[in-house]
């Protein structure tokens, strides 16, 4: 699966189906990790939740465990 950073995607299948996702790379920033942002709307203003991952190596496993199919915008 292709992973895109700082791009909004619609979750077509899996956990959180119908919600939007955005992956933010903060490995060079203050947290040193990866944010997975999930929202009810594509502008990330309604019911926004986040998960934090230690490294980019963890993203694919996270997406697979969530059983996501993502349509990137």
Automatic annotation (TrEMBL):
Domain of life: Bacteria
Protein name per UniProt: Uncharacterized protein
Source organism: Saprospira grandis DSM 2844
